[in-house]
Amino acid sequence: MNIQSKKLNLIEHLLLLQDESIINKIEKMLRLPSKQELKHKPMSLDEFYSRVEESEKAIREGKTISQKDLERESENW
């Protein structure tokens, strides 16, 4: 299926959609910056240190997952 066919298929599904909560989620997702936009935006040192602190806190609190468990979980994505 080419990109144009995929777009048309999405449009058809959107036209039939009646659940406003799903439409709201789609709108929110479309407002997110693309990976390309994020890729070219460097983070500040403050943001970097904040992320390091959050990660260290998560490790101390045991909020981690093993590589093996992550691989098992990702099989269902």
Question: What are the SSEs and their pairings?
Answer:
Elements: H1 3-16, H2 20-31, H3 35-39, H4 45-60, H5 67-74
What does this structure look like?
There is one protein chain. With 77 residues, the protein is mainly α. The chain has 2 domains: 39 residues, no CATH class; 36 residues. It contains 5 helices and no strands. The protein is extended. The protein starts with a helix and ends with a helix. 0% of the residues are buried.
Give a short overview.
This protein has 5 helices and no strands. The chain is an all-alpha fold and 77 residues long.
Please summarize the sheet with the most strands.
none
The secondary-structure class comes to mainly alpha
Number of H- or I-type helical stretches: 5
Number of domains: 2
Task: Give structural attributes.
77 residues; mainly alpha; 2 domains; 5 helices; extended
